Amino acid sequence: MGILRPKIQVLDEEHKNQIFAEATEILETQGIFLENNNAIQLFKEQGFSHTKTRWMIPSDIVKTSLKSTPKSIKLYDREGKNPLLLTGDNVHFDPGSAAVTILDESTGQIREPKSSDFIRFTQIVEHLRYIDAQSTSFIYGDVPMMAQDWHRLFICLSYCNKPIITGTFHKNNFKIMRELLLACRKSEKDLAEKPLAIFDACPSPPLRWSDLTTQSLLDAAESMIPSEFISMPLSGASAPITLIGSITQHCAETLAGIVITQLARKGAPVIWGGSPAILDMKHGTTPMGAIETMLINLGDVEMGKFFNLPVQAYMSLGDGKIPDAQAGFEAGIGAVLAALGGINMVSGPGMLNFESTQSIEKLIIDNEIAGMAKHLIRGINDYDPPFASEILKDYNDKEELLSHPTTLKLFKKELFITEIVDRSSKEMWVKKGSKSIRGRAKEKARKLLERLPEHPIDESLQKNLQRITRDNLN
User: Fold this and answer.
1) Average per-residue pLDDT for the chain
2) Cβ pair 138, 358 in contact under 8 A
3) Is the pTM of this model over 0.85?
């Protein structure tokens, strides 16, 4: 780490305290819509007051739940190694989840994806240095609808060693997904101690925890599998138009999720995340690359850090339809702000079209953007003084410093060496075919798919995963 870690801050302590106080007041006086009978029973046992549709959560229960929530999470790969530490200002990137289309890099058209597309996508994630985790990145329709949740997890486990960000759209699928994860561990205790996957849980704004989403929290808590809250306030539509109002609503919805998980099992691991957006008043869309959306994300994250919890946000996305200049600057701004904000898990590389489309080309470009963002937050390294005078004395001998011992020793540490970003001369660029960054990403994808897996799956584990898949497809 450098002399100072570059940071960004959008809320002061006074406003964080005000947001927390108002969020707890909302939960205590307005309450949440709760549709899951198991969670309702937990609330009844606590004696929470309620109306016909809303359950009120006392502020003391919120504060007690925050105290029992773990302040850090280690997420492990398929082999149970190389933990990602989600705490403090550590920054990791993963592709966003559950897109419904893919940009076909061979035709340039957005289309419905197939499972073969997901296999290719996952194989490429395995080789990307700065994408730290994989995700169930998009939904494909060539397997039965009821099997899609766990089938995506099966592919993730089969073709990539990295930890997984996933989730379920069908209540009965959690059991199968848990079985797949347990196949990669020695026991339930081992899975709890070395979690391999995070389950996203998305409350419906404003202040509604659905039957499906709440059951995911309860199931994950029972197995001590981390849940990642993805509150989605939409400023001006399902949340206040003011950014601070949306941050406050996000805080209330997420605090409710923490109460549910801690009532289900004290000490259950959670991540304070979100996917907010503004409503574009000109087009009626939900731009993820809007600077206001990014400001809400930063405010949400600062509230999570206010409680010393691991944090996540959907950033580094683009709202364009192809990996063009718009996609690049939106992804770049988002990645840099996310890194400066110290977001533990940044979801979004590869995503286009308002979080609905995944692109292999953009994913490869975003990998390099993520690398630059990580390089930025390293800051300026301190080498013992004198910093320059002794080196400059040697310039007189050769009139260059390229061969200087410090250059040869430190250039790989000081400089971020690019692959996709072109820094060659114009003549060399023309000689190589005058390719755009999108063209270079497409070429890189082909090369990555030709590589062998860096961590091939154990044959017995693969057979076990295939058995579970066959049993549940029949």
Assistant:
1) 97
2) yes
3) yes
